[in-house]
Amino acid sequence: MARRGRGKTKKNKLLLSSNEGTIQEHVDVDKVEKRLRQTASDLKCEAFYGTWRDELRMATLELQQRYLKRKADSQSLNCSSGQMQCVCYGLGSFSSCASGRYQLAMLMLLLDALEIRPSDCSVFDPVFSSGEKAVLSRIGLTVLIENEEGKRQALKPTFFYLMHCGKALYNNLLWKNWSKQHLTEILIVGNSFCGMKERTIDREFNRDYRYISQITAVCKENLLPCPSHMTDVFSDTAVLTFPAGDLDKLSESTWTNPSEPQYEYCKDLEIVCKDRTEII
After folding, report:
1. Quick one: which H or E segment has residue 23?
2. pTM to 2 decimals?
């Protein structure tokens, strides 16, 4: 956004800048927040939003019920309420990119529909500017400072929002939660695993993304509707869950000694790695 003219600005106007490579970006935090809330209001009026909301409510209810049943069966003394947490990776520069803004607006609506406190939603993208971080903090979200590369273990029911992220991010997330206990406690809204498999050569898919490859046949995948005018934003999106009964179909050896993904053969890995600034 270009600088304002010499006219006086309101005292509550917050204008931040950050260096993204060689480009200086100026983010009018008030304006970005207002536009974001308007986008959320517009999305809420879209017919497909109601389907997204209802699908997520049903999936999270099942997730929480499984969690509480498992805790009760194990007679755990540390049996929490099953309150959902949320983790979001890969929104991109939502202040300048319409897709990122719509995806963030949808996240805001879903958090409200699922009764997840904004402070219980952690967000990260290495491209976030200081101004965008200020917007995220203002709407109540928790901005992570460390690039986890998707390697976040779910210690309680967790909703992962991973819109149009690279396969490595999903693969890392699955690896970090590679047990029947942890996988049954996560829900993903993101790219269809079946779609990933169809678009990737089998040999490469099985070698480089073996956790996605192994779980695709047994995960529960419900595709979410996407209107034709929003294909760039919400296409190929599904609700992915991992019911224990389906995970039991995999052999016990599947779960033994899962090794951390390395991606040594991947030339176009769509993830910003920790301690690195370029996409490799």
Report:
1. strand 23-28
2. 0.87
